[in-house]
Amino acid sequence: MEPVYDTVITAARLLWLAEGLKFKVSGVEHVPAEGPGVVAINHTGYLDFTYAGIPAHLQGRRKVRFMAKKEVFDNKISGPIMRSLKHIPVDRTAGADSYRAAVEYLKRGELVGVYPEATISRSFELKAFKSGAARMAIESGAPIIPTVIWGAQRVWTKGHPKRLGRTGYPISIGVCEALEPTGDPDALTAKLHEVMSAKLLELQDAYGEHPKGEFWVPARLGGSAPTLEEANRMDAEEQAERAAKRAQRDNP
Hints:
By secondary structure, the chain is α/β, with parallel strands linked by helices. The chain has helices at about 5-20, 50, 55-60, 70-75, 80-85, 95-105, 130-140, 185-205, 230-250, and strands at about 20-25, 35-40, 65-70, 90, 110-115, 145-150, 170-175. It has a seven-stranded mixed beta sheet. α6 packs across α7 (about 130-140). The mean pLDDT is about 95. Keywords: Acyltransferase, Transferase.
């Protein structure tokens, strides 16, 4: 029993009920009922991790330890909560410690949630994947559990206001068959991207209407979201701006 985690789950479910969110979850059977697993999640919004834990909860009330950026842990409100839930802080300038912590969690039989894209996809298409999920799976011997979410970007995503009122938005969550932690990390990462891309298209096809021009709809489907190429350029510009600010701060 983990009282804090259980309390947070209860609070989240009450919030979702108040929002009128409608979840459609498939593939729960692919989450291991016991033992480790790298839960690889696509990243379209700030609340993805709260929804990504639903399949594990449905599979014997299992809990996922999510890897999240260090800034969330530094916050005086969210930090104590994240530490109580045993999530893993990630310092993007020095990721070795978080990687080792994730591997240790996996070796102890935990489920660890990771974002192979590292940052939110402004295009809502899958970005290029980092190889960390594959490497930690191979090192720990844990299977990778590809998990795809569609619709979460409507609630709260980068560059748009949060919509936490009673929206009634549908959110689809699909879990794919586990990938065995074998072979070359780059090849396994490519396979993970392929599997998750196929599941994303499947969820989009079954989701319902994607209104033309809407911010949460990919350009490919007629929405106003940037294309993957445009989004990559925006990310690169943002990273360059942050680096410049850090340099100015460190060398006044």
